[in-house]
Design goal:
Layout lengths: L2 E4 L2 E9 L8 E8 L2 E2 L28 E5 L9 H19 L2 H6 L8 H9 L1 E2 L4 E4 L2 E3 L3 H6 L16 H18 L8 H8 L7 H14 L12 H8 L6 H29 L4 E7 L4 H10 L30 H6 L28 E4 L6 H10 L2 E4 L4 E4 L14 E2 L9 H9 L6 E4 L8 E2 H20 L13 E2 L14 H10 L26 H21 L13 H6 L49 E3 L1
Parallel strand pairs: 5-9
Antiparallel strand pairs: 1-2, 2-3, 2-15, 4-13, 5-17, 6-7, 7-8, 9-16, 10-14, 11-12
């Protein structure tokens, strides 16, 4: 007999076993995140076939015809820490109130890129389940990871408008400063010019200008190193101590970019199968993917570098500052990491780092009332399925698929109905009140298990997916290279090969600049000035037309399932289990003053191990877009 414990938990007696299946099953009482089902006859949220198919035959990213431009992965400028220190002396109490102190300090540390690690993880990404599908289980970035990184889970939405004349006047001043830099010799309000203009200026808007640079460079970056106009209202709110929920916005962007990068990798596999080796696919990534790499370092022992000692007052990310590591084949390491995977790295003691309150020594039942501490309220949102509203996307959030990351037992994940007709509707889904009387907090060192039913389902899912994937292997046949560019054409390497009409439509509608005007402004073939290419509207139309031709031909050439197509379900399941891609946020649906931004704008000799794709870095300057080819 099931007992509903609260809004997100259900408790029942089950046969439980370790995630690896080792040992004998034990009958015990267990708590599970909702929605969960206790029979495979129910509406189980299955894993689509396309999530594990279509990857290059060998894992050698250095030799792949893929160029990833990490526009959102920016290193601190030479004088950035100095400015942070000065602003902290004046505004630290405000930063604590708005929940950004740790995140600001984290931006002063440099996380080196390991391209192999990022691509290895992305190979495992499933855009429908919003999780990495490993042979041994599911895992993903969650709101808890963003909370640990210093971003607030609680607060107002990022699109909250400015209501008073005083706040609107500050926005006018920031826009005026931006226009002045547009008229300067640099012809753009780049990060370096903005820092020089305001750092130590004693301007009455220096704090707001500081926060605008922080947001534009490290939190919600655009496709180039310029100040993003749409972050001005956010900066103004934060400067007044208003808490803005940045965590869901950032996580939505990471989910979106993982899906787009996975599509490029799948397209790369198709080009490889077609025998076309003269094309290069390019993709810009605008979300802060350093958070993805830190997530992996925290959990995969075989992939992490040697850590620094954290000093008193330093953020957790300080342990990874300037650290680099060379590992072997990332794909192999990820596939075999089941037993060594750390499900709850933040629950362990770390010198000079304070554990959040919800990492308790013993299990707790906390009363949900007006006095509920913020950290417990944040933990509750981390556990609840919802919608994440990003700058130009809405992504689903499915923590019930990875319950063990929260110290909670795992059972069959149920389907979740989407609630995302508009950004406002999606935000209401995310921010709805916690209605339960008590919140369950598991012991921090509790080793969660899985039901025997889940373990059997997982094994059967792997076998089914493997057999289907092998049966759908594409026939090697030449494909028209309509959406990729020759390797020799470095100046024009902008490939927008996408795997489904729906994805292509979203890319087309979303490739815009951010503006505080009342309409979306599209770019017509202009370059962002620092080597970051934009897709013009004309090229997008051409790409769409060509892609339709390519997709039609692929239907004749391949027997494989189309990339991005939802897994087939019964009509009954389709009512509750929407597995399609995230909707486009059209300009008509966006809140006032919020407009869509651009989509985050040598061969190895035989017998030798692949080269490690690591990037040595220096202190950042203004032209520091990180491109890995």
């Amino acid at each position: 007999m099931e007992e509903l414990v609260d809004f997100g938990f259900v408790e029942r007696e089950e046969l439980m076993v370790s995630p690896s299946g080792d040992g004998e099953p034990t009958l015990r009482s267990a708590k599970f995140l909702q929605p969960t089902v206790n029979s495979t006859d129910g509406s189980v949220f299955e894993i689509p076939i396309h999530c594990i198919s279509s990857v290059p035959a060998t894992f050698e990213p250095k030799n792949w015809a893929l160029e990833v431009k990490y526009n959102g992965w920016r290193y601190p400028q030479k004088e950035w820490r100095t400015w942070v220190e000065k602003m902290c002396c004046l505004h630290e109490s405000t930063w604590k109130k708005s929940g950004i102190r740790e995140a600001i300090w984290s931006s002063t540390y440099k996380i080196q890129i390991n391209n192999d690690l990022v691509l290895g993880l992305t190979e495992k990404w499933c855009p429908d389940t919003k999780s990495f599908i490993f042979p041994w289980g599911e895992a993903t970035l969650t709101l808890e990871d963003l909370f640990i990184a210093g971003y607030s889970v609680l607060g107002s939405p990022f699109f909250t408008g400015l209501e008073t004349e005083e706040l609107k006047e500050i926005e006018v001043k920031l826009n005026q400063a931006r226009k002045e830099l547009n008229r300067s010799s640099s012809k753009k309000p780049d990060h370096g010019a903005w820092l020089k203009k305001f750092m130590g200026s004693r301007s009455d808007i220096e704090h707001e200008a500081f926060l605008a640079l922080w947001l534009s460079r490290f939190v919600l970056p655009g496709s180039s190193s310029v100040i993003v106009q749409a972050v001005f209202p956010i900066a103004i709110h934060l400067s007044r101590g208003t808490r803005i929920a940045l965590a869901p916005t950032i996580l939505a962007g990471i989910y979106r970019d993982l899906g787009l990068l996975k599509e490029r990798i799948a397209a790369l596999a198709e080009l490889e199968n077609s025998g076309d080796k003269d094309q290069v696919l390019e993709i810009p990534i605008c979300s802060p993917f350093q958070l993805l790499q830190i997530w992996a370092w925290e959990r995969f022992k075989e992939l992490r570098p040697k850590t620094n000692l954290i000093k008193i007052g330093e953020p957790r990310c300080a342990q990874w500052h300037k650290q680099m590591t060379g590992v072997g084949n990332v794909r192999t390491i990820l596939d075999s990491a089941g037993v060594s995977f750390d499900w709850r790295p933040y629950a362990k003691l770390l010198n000079n780092w304070n554990l959040p309150e919800f990492f308790a020594e013993k299990e707790m039942s906390v009363s949900v009332d007006a006095d509920l501490p913020e950290e417990f309220s944040s933990f509750a949102l981390c556990l609840r399925t919802s919608e994440l509203v990003g700058l130009d996307c809405v992504e689903s959030y499915f923590p019930h698929r990875v319950a063990m990351q929260f110290g909670i037992d795992q059972d069959l994940p149920g389907c979740v109905a989407r609630d995302n007709d508009t950004p406002h509707v999606a935000w209401n889904c995310y921010s709805k009140p916690i209605t339960c009387e008590t919140l369950y907090i598991p012991p921090r060192l509790y080793e969660a298990g899985v039901t025997t039913r889940y373990l059997e389902w997982w094994k059967q899912s792997k076998l089914s997916l493997k057999s289907e994937s092998e049966a759908l292997l594409p026939i090697k046949k030449a494909l028209p290279s309509v959406l990729s560019t020759p390797r020799k054409s470095k100046a024009a390497k902008v490939s927008r090969l996408v795997g489904s009409k729906k994805r292509l439509k979203r890319t087309t509608e979303s490739s815009c600049t951010m503006s505080t005007e009342g309409s979306v402004k599209r770019l017509d073939g202009v370059n962002d000035g620092d080597g970051t290419p934009f897709c013009s509207s004309s090229s997008l139309k051409s790409s769409e037309k060509s892609s339709k031709t390519l997709i039609q031909k692929k239907k004749d050439i391949y027997v494989a399932v189309t990339l991005g197509k939802p897994v087939e379900t019964s009509k009954e399941k389709e009512k509750v289990c929407e597995l399609s891609a995230s909707p486009v946020l059209s300009s008509e649906k966006l809140p006032p003053k919020l407009l869509v931004k651009e989509l985050n704008d040598s061969p190895v000799p035989p017998g030798f191990a692949p080269k490690f794709n690591l990037v040595e870095t220096r202190d950042s300057d203004d032209k520091d877009d990180l491109t890995i080819a």
